[in-house]
Design goal:
270 residues; 18% strand; globular; 5-stranded mixed beta sheet; two-stranded antiparallel ribbon
């Protein structure tokens, strides 16, 4: 399958883009392995990478985020073992670094020397990683749906619906001490999408309660004002620099401004 990776990166001239495409292909294969293990009977896909895979948001992502949606415990060790075996069968060098057991199960799937083999790094020991996280105690109120997509491989994925994904993005912006520019890019992209529905307010409030939110209860009338206040506090130049390496088209960094975000918030409606 490394030959296939070489084929799909040929059309990309930028070295950062090539490396992002390699990671994205590995993400798709990881999702395929989860699918084969029937993990999507019990977990739902969410976060920035889900926006990329499901709705083609024009920026690359790093992590695979999931929430448990059933009562059955996640067999995380079994999942990781199967990931290891599957990639080793395809002649990949794979290392897995699992974090200490917490509410959010977490592990880095590492691919040593892959970038070197693909002529994307001069350093043989440079490692490309994909992080997997599964929240075993997610906030209540999310709604899910299943979508069949083609992203290098054929995937049939259980995932949060659009209002719930929107709520997750708003939660990240309100709850994170240091906001990622990628979250702001995602917010602007969602707000600019005329077909995107209103956020799942129930899920947003439940998520904020889990992270000790000190602000007011959020409803359909005040969420724009609350997000606007947060947006005005942000160092947008720093956010822009954080985002640039992940953009498909670097020129889109100029869309990442406070004024654009505030205007879209004011005009967003279902």
């Amino acid at each position: 399958m490394k030959d296939y990776i070489r084929q799909i990166i040929v059309e990309h001239k930028n070295i950062f883009s090539k490396r992002s495409v390699v990671r994205e292909y590995l993400q798709s294969r990881l999702l395929q392995i989860l699918q084969e293990e029937k993990a999507f009977l019990n977990i739902a896909f969410l976060g920035g990478t889900s926006l990329r895979f499901l709705y083609s948001i024009p920026r690359y992502s790093e992590d695979l985020d999931f929430s448990i949606i059933g009562k059955e415990a996640v067999k995380f060790d079994d999942i990781l073992n199967n990931v290891m075996k599957s990639f080793q069968l395809e002649n990949y060098k794979v290392e897995i670094k699992k974090s200490k057991e917490k509410t959010v199960l977490s592990a880095f799937i590492k691919f040593p020397s892959l970038l070197y083999e693909l002529d994307l790094s001069p350093y043989q020991d440079e490692t490309l990683s994909v992080k997997i996280e599964i929240d075993t105690n997610p906030p209540q109120g999310a709604n899910t749906e299943v979508t069949l997509i083609r992203k290098y491989v054929l995937l049939n994925i259980l995932h949060y619906d659009k209002p719930s994904l929107f709520a997750g993005k708003l939660h990240a912006i309100l709850a994170r001490k240091y906001i990622k520019g990628r979250d702001l890019f995602d917010l602007i992209w969602i707000l600019a999408n005329s077909q995107w529905p209103m956020p799942n307010i129930l899920l947003l409030n439940n998520a904020l309660k889990q992270t000790s939110w000190k602000g007011p209860e959020i409803d359909q009338n005040n969420w724009r004002d609350i997000i606007s206040l947060r947006v005005k506090e942000i160092d947008w130049e720093k956010a822009k620099k954080d985002t640039v390496p992940f953009l498909e088209r670097e020129a889109e960094k100029y869309l990442l401004t406070k004024d654009n975000c505030l205007n879209l918030l004011n005009n967003f409606d279902e």
